[in-house]
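Notes from hallway chat w/ T.B., transcribed later so I don't forget. T.B. wanted the structure written out for a chain they're using in a teaching module, and asked if we could keep both sequence and structure tokens in one place. Agreed to drop them here.
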Amino acid sequence: PVVVLSNNDGCAISRSNEAKRIWIAMGAPIFKCQDIVKQHCVKVFSANFVLYGDMSSRVMAVLSNFTPNLEVYSIDEAFLSLNGFEHLNLDEYARRIKTDVKRLTGIPVSIGVAPTKTLAKVANHFAKDHPETGGVFCLMEEGEIDRYLAQTPVEELWGIGREKAI
């Protein structure tokens, strides 16, 4: 398990999947997690915001090659409008984006494709959490959307769930 700490090494601001599985919460003060850190040999690192910002800029530059409409949402998240791309196989296009980002920056990404930003976040959640997707998940068909929304707790829906900002 790996955890990256905030300024002054106070709180967990990034966690590997292994760290999440042992219940180290986002934003948790690291001093409250010392028993878990020792018990599970968690690797703890200080954040390098200059490097993180530089890598983010590189990833966003690669993404900008795939659409004229890129919305950088945060340092590690973006929305790419694929309006007008309907003639393409969007799953293949998303896999090409993922491959190019990894090849050109070394950064692995996951991609959710859907008709709205909220649904894209749901699709991305499935892309991240289900290895069989290869890190890309398209949620475009109405019946499929209903099926996956039924599996998603309302608290997890971006822009909808109670007091949870993503």
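Follow-up for T.B.: DSSP finds six helices and seven strands in the chain. Might be a good example for the class.
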